[in-house]
Description:
about 120 residues; 6 helices; mainly alpha
Amino acid sequence: MLKTFTLMKITRERANAIYYRDYWKYNGIDTLPDEIVGIVFDNAVIQGQGTAIQNVHKSLDIVPGAIIGPTTLKKLENTDYSVFINRFKNYAKSRVNEIIDNDDSQSIFKNGWNNRISKY
């Protein structure tokens, strides 16, 4: 059973451990090429790990799955990263719109989310 904790009392070391375990190492994100791993990691933090991985797969025109595996890594070998990043940003921004369409109370975060994604 997970222990609850107060976010204001979390140590930097504990926060780093959570990010490492739950986002960086999650289902192969850490195996991505240096050129894109940072944006996928950031997207996992703001939109969820599964969404970030699906955005990778959709950006590569492969069937969205739950892991970064051999198929994903092979497809990335011959990928123009600037094209990939533009596609990835578009999928991430589309997800922002889906979130707001499903819950208008989230619209307050739209500009912040989109500004963050635009910096990828």
